Please model this.
Amino acid sequence: MKLTTRQLTLCAMLTAMALALSYLENFFPLSAAIPIPGIKLGLANIVTVFALYALGPGQAMLILLARCVLGAVFAGNLNALLFSLLGGVTAMGTMILLSRSRRFSVYGVSIGGAAAHQCGQVAAAVLALGNTAPCYYLPVLLGVSLLTGALTGLVSACLFQALAHTGLTRI
Amino acid sequence: MRSYPELRPVRWDALAVLAVLALAAASALLLWRAPAETGAVTAVISADGEERERIDLTALSPTTITVESRGYTLHVLLSEEEVRVTESDCPTQDCVHTGAIHGSGQSIVCLPARVTVRLEGGAPADGPDLVIG
Model:
């Protein structure tokens, strides 16, 4: 993939923002309310949704991969890479399909991505733990993904609305 | 902007929500089947994909088992009524916050330590299912 300097800069900036959002959500621990390992708001998904529409699937995938690798390095926890990659790539694939269909709004795409992310993470947990015990949490995780997906969809919609007048996103 | 998304919920979004709900309900039905009322429930403790302990909970007086895995130590309290992780030095503490589990099929997962505690069995033992009269 060939990127212009402008595109590369924007990708780098969005990666940094995604990492910052991942860090930020540590201050709103969803797991305190719902004690399930690995449950979180998924704020970094806002960046993925934005990149998918503004930059296209290729660059959105680059940002996602950079975010997962750097996130694992910064956390000093390479075990987390399996979880974020499997969750992230499953979510990305689903959102690409949903957005390509051009039938869903940013809410539908975001909710589909959040639900797929949970499925990917449960799969990662099954692989990491070597048994199917994590599947027990899948129904709750899917239910929660409706809320977190709608939340990231709302933020994304506000973001697009705000940027529509600036022309900043015309790339 | 390559493609501008629809910013207000559309009818198809309801379909996405319904699909996720259906998936949640289907997986709940499949994974949370009500355990049988009789029979022995066994607690299976695994670490790093390997089974460490298998404990029959029938008439078990409260027992604490220590599980060490990946540099973390978990204390698992088992009794006839329930199983819970009472103490863990893992950073997330999700396993402790999960609380008590008591039915077959339920589980406690500790991701940092790679430990799972799962309740198995609960299928009717060799006796009759139901005695009438």
Notes: Chain A has one domain: 5-164. The mean pLDDT of chain A is 90. Chain A has six helices and no strands. Chain A touches chain B through 47 residues (CB under 8 Å).
